[in-house]
């Protein structure tokens, strides 16, 4: 991966953690009628715009950044209709300097499933962005607020091997926020 992209993602993750953005998303969910997804896109979208502008000051953000619900940038190419779907549209798409898909997902919020189930689905779903040919790198920012920690499972050998394969083969990486 390009060093500039790696630094951008690291700074983005650090900022989201430092500002406890997912806690703010949950508080907003409790006080409004909006969905977790809509609030997460809006709040993380603000941070992405700021980090992107600082990381890539030479790029026009209006041409380079897509956030679901905010319209499409100039030069947006409709994603391939993989398996007859409308395409792999991410929550956030970065078109320049590389095509990067960022999915926002979570487990908790009134759900009874074990967080690992949603974690696996998010990982598999995001990899289709790479497989479709529309995105060079795919990231999932996964917020686990279920009360059941995922950390112990992510340190096991089989899970580490699976995550490594996803990164190497499908250019897809999931980042856990607990």
Structure description:
- The protein is an alpha/beta fold and 178 residues long.
- The chain is built from seven helices and five strands; from the N terminus they run H-H-H-H-E-E-E-H-E-H-H-E.
- It has a five-stranded mixed beta sheet with strand order 1-2-3-4-5, with helices on both faces.
- Strand 2 (92-94) and strand 3 (100-107) form a beta hairpin.
Order of helices and strands: HHHHEEEHEHHE
**Biggest pleated-sheet summary:** 5 strands, mixed
CA-based gyration radius: 16 Å
Low-confidence stretches: none
* Strand line-up of the largest beta sheet: 1-2-3-4-5
Count of separate DSSP helical elements: 7
Number of strands: 5
Distance between the termini: 26 Å
Shape: globular
- Proportion of residues in helical segments: 40-55%
**What number is the mean pLDDT?**
90
Structural class: alpha/beta
What percent of residues are in strands?
15-25%
Q: Which characteristics define this entry?
A:
5-stranded mixed β-sheet, 178 residues, globular, single chain, 48% helix, 7 helices
Secondary-structure map:
Blueprint: H1 3-18, H2 21-31, H3 36-55, H4 61-64, E1 65-67, E2 92-94, E3 100-107, H5 115-131, E4 137-144, H6 151-154, H7 157-170, E5 172-177
Parallel strand pairs: 3-4, 4-5
Antiparallel strand pairs: 1-2, 2-3
Helix pairs in contact: 1-3, 2-3
Summarize the structure in short.
The protein has helices spanning 3-18, 21-31, 36-55, 61-64, 115-131, 151-154, 157-170; strands at 65-67, 92-94, 100-107, 137-144, 172-177. It has 178 residues and is α/β, with parallel strands linked by helices.
């Amino acid at each position: 991966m390009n060093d500039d992209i790696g630094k951008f993602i690291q700074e983005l993750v650090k900022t989201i953690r430092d500002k406890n953005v997912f806690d703010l998303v949950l508080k907003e969910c409790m006080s409004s009628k909006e969905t977790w997804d809509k609030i997460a896109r809006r709040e993380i979208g603000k941070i992405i715009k700021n980090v992107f502008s600082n990381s890539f000051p030479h790029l026009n953000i209006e041409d380079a950044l897509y956030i679901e619900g905010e319209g499409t940038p100039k030069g947006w190419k409709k994603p391939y209709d993989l398996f007859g779907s409308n395409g792999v549209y991410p929550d956030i798409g970065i078109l320049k300097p590389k095509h990067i898909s960022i999915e926002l997902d979570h487990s908790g919020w009134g759900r009874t499933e074990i967080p690992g189930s949603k974690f696996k689905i998010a990982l598999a779903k995001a990899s289709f962005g790479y497989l479709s040919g529309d995105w060079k790198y795919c990231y999932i920012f996964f917020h686990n607020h279920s009360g059941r920690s995922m950390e112990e499972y992510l340190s096991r050998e089989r899970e580490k091997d699976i995550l490594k394969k996803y990164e190497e083969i499908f250019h897809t990486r999931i980042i856990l926020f607990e």
